[in-house]
Every structure is written in C-alpha cells, then in structure tokens.
Design a protein that fits this description.
CATH architecture of the largest domain: 3-Layer(aba) Sandwich
Structural class: alpha/beta
Oligomer: single chain
Largest sheet: 6 strands, parallel
Strand content: 15-25%
Shape: elongated
CATH class of the largest domain: Alpha Beta
Number of strands: 11
Number of domains: 2
CATH superfamily of the largest domain: Glycogen Phosphorylase B
Strand order of the largest sheet: 2-1-3-4-5-6
CATH topology of the largest domain: Rossmann fold
Number of helices: 10
Radius of gyration: 20 Å
Length: 301
Amino acid sequence: MARICYIGNFTRIYDEEGIARSLEKLGHEVIRIAEQGYHSASIQVIVNEKPDFVLFAKLKIPMVWREGFFDAMKKYHIKTVCWIPDLFFGLGRERYIKSSDSFFRADVVLTPDGGHDKKWKELGINHKLLRQGIYDEDCETGATYPVEHSIAFVGTQNGEFPYRQKLMMELAQHYGKMFRWFGRMSANHIRGKELTSMLQSTQIIIGDSVYSPHYWSNRVYETIGRGGFLIHPNIPGLEEEFSYYKHFIPYDYGDFGGLFEKIDYYLQHPDERRKITEAGRKHVMENHTLLHRCKRLLELV
C-alpha cells in the first residue's frame, strides 16, 4: 500500500477530500497537508513522513515557497504528482503550462485531456491521461424525487466558450419557462444532495463541455452517476466510455434542430428515460468512480 502526502483543500468532498477518502478506502495512507495552512516548515513535515510520493492539484501555496518545494522534493528524491481536473490547451489558462514555477513541473502530470499527447511531449511534460470521476457515495440509488423541472443545464457562463451562450439562448427561446439554468454565475451554486435532487427531479439534463477531442468535463460522470438523464454533445472518445442511447443520448454540436427533436421525444417517453438513466448510473458506479480513478493513478505513478 502507498503512503501519500496530499497537498490540497480538504474542506469539501468535491475538492481534494473525495480523492483522499477514495485512496483511503483502497487501503492507502493519506497524510493531508492543507493548502490554507502551508508554511515554511511544511517541507520538513513532508520529508519526515517519507511518502512514496506527494500529490497535489494546482499547488495553491504561497509563491515564495513553491520554488523551494520542488527543489526540496528533488533533493530528497520524493516523487511529485500533479492531478488536475482541467483542460488547458486552447484556453487562457494555457499560459500556466510554461510558467517556471508552475505545478506542471511535477514528475508526473495527470489530466483528463486525451487529445494533446504530442503537445505535452513537445513541452517535455510527463503527462498521462486520467479521467475525472464521481465520489462513489454520490452514486445514489433508490431515491425518488418528484418531477420539478422539464429541462435544465448545470454549469457556469463560460466566456471562453461562446457555443455555451448560443446553446443556452436557443434552449431558452425554444422552451421558455420549461428550461432552467443552474450555476450560471458560480460552479458551486448547487452541490451534494441538492445537486442529486435537482438532477433526479429534472426530466432532461442538457450536457455541455468546452470542445476538445478526447476531453469532457466531470459533468458527464456527475450527471449520469447521480441519476440524471443526460443529452450531451458527441465528442470523439466519449463513445469509448459510454454506450450511446444506452447510458446517455448524444447530439451533434450546433444541430439545435436535432437536439430539440431528441428533447421532445424523450419528454414524451418516460419509461425509456428511466431505463437509460438507471443503466447509466449503474455503469458509472461500476466503472467511473474516484475509486476506479485512484486505482488507475497508482498504476500510472
């Protein structure tokens, strides 16, 4: 079993705590080092713990200590592993990849971006694909919530992805009050049990992700795993993890007419929705939880 020092935010399941608990459920030892309390003596704490590796996401520690952190880990031969849930290429945050004090200096960098292997290699970054996942206890089964909404989307207003604004406008104009947009100004607007309740009490959830081949957001796993009925854009690679029309319903980017046809059809066929929803939730629970991701993390590291 591995001994892991984990630098992160452990106050919420959907930050690093869900991963830490998943690693512990698998029998590994996790020494939590809170980013909020990181100080000059934290490096010595890590060294004294003699971990197999140090894990972190964006390494949100004071900049003055970040350079020293990487130097110390090299000095004491402690492997560093960055597991970050975001897409970087093609977005404004891409500039962080080349930053001299970036978390991308880690010995191993894990992201859900499966479409830029060549670029990672050209930059000399030891990148490996590791998808996101849902905390296993959030794959709720047996719950029944009365229908409250017909159609909904959950996600922020992303200025770097104009397609989302167009999609939201088309849905609002076509369906009026039947359509709801949750989390528009804050990704943390709805979480936990409240998110599960909203997903299960909505007839159809519209998915969306900044377009990049072989990348999709964690919204896919969260929606299907919590028992939501998902209609999502067809992204290359997604069919390798989910069966179309069995676990969720695909549509082509920009084909709003085709999207509306599928929405209208499934609004009128609740039995088909229930069958797909349950098959999808079971599939996520059996293949795409953080337990599965943490097993893969240890294999990659």
